[in-house]
Structure formats: C-alpha cells, structure tokens
Design brief:
Elements lengths: L1 H27 L19 E2 L8 E2 L7 E7 L4 H16 L5 E7 L4 H11 L5 E4 L5 H5 L7 E5 L5 E6 L4 H12 L5 E4 L10
Length: 197
Amino acid sequence: MSGRWIRWAAYGIAVLGVAFAVVLASRFGSDPGLVDSPLLGEQAPTFELAPLEGGEPVSLADFEGDIVVVNFFASWCLECRNEHDAITSTADAFADEGVTFIQIGYQESPQASLDYLELAGRSEAASYLADPGSRTAIAYGVFGIPETFFIDPDGVVVGKIIGESDAFTLGATIDAIIAGETPGQTVTGDTRQSPDE
C-alpha cells in the first residue's frame, strides 16, 4: 500500500513539474516582439536629451504637432547599420511634411555614436541625442535595437517597428499616419540587446 502511494506521489510531482515548466516556457520564453507594445495608443513618454555632441537639450515637446519618428540605434548593432541609409533618406524625404526624426544612441557613449555617424552620415532633418543611463529607452520599453516608434501629431504612439526597417516600410507607416490611420506594430527581424551578442 505504501509503495503504491509513493508511486502515485512521484507521478503527481512529475505532472506538476511538467505543468510548471510549460507555464514558465509560455510566459518567459516567448519572443517579446510577438507582444504588442503597451505604448501603442498611449501618450509618448516625454524626454529632454542633449545632442550627442553636447549643447542645448532637445525635448519631445519641441515637436508638438509633428509626426515624430524615434529610432534607438547603436554603432555596435549590425541591423542599425543596415537600416541607417533608409532612416536618413526617409528623414530627408519627409522633412517638409511635418515629420521629425529623432535618433537616440543606445547603451554606448555619445562619442561612439558620433564616430559611427561621422562615417555613416547624418540627415540635416534629424536630431541625434544621447540617453545617459538609458532612461528614455527604459521609458519606451526598448528590449533590443533597432526599435522605431511613430508618434502622431497629438503625441500618441501609433506605430512601432521592431527590427531592421527599410525606406518602404518607414514611408508607408508615415503615409498611414498622415492619412489618419493607426499602423500598429510591425516585426521585421531580429534585434540586439548588447554589443556582446
């Protein structure tokens, strides 16, 4: 009798262990890119950040009434390098249409970002900002880069691209916002969390 009870107890513990593992895997092992950003439909977190080269801080409030595209990037991120020309050309193309691009350096020194931009090029229509302590990235829920957020003229986050973007996706998202639509979230590929990946 006691032997049968021990077998049933062992069986019960094994079943509970498997169930617990399934719960953990489903909640913590999933790709965060598959879950819509909680910022969608919400007011964009405000920020006031210094340009990479120093100087007067730039605030999100400075661009009230514009469509604002906020892109988090780093020199060590291959996908960021791949999308850089698309970001720059799209910023130039929409510069006269009430669209502002802001690129924020992620988890690297302002000098490292500046050195990278010196080689990669910059858009006169974009602002390039430092984020000491990653406070703005945290406020936006950035999990890995590149991540690009689209803020409508009312200051609401209406779109997000996770992964490497291209000029077509950027332009189509902006056109949708201009038309009064809410583009939502698009996952285009992988992101990087740190230079060690």
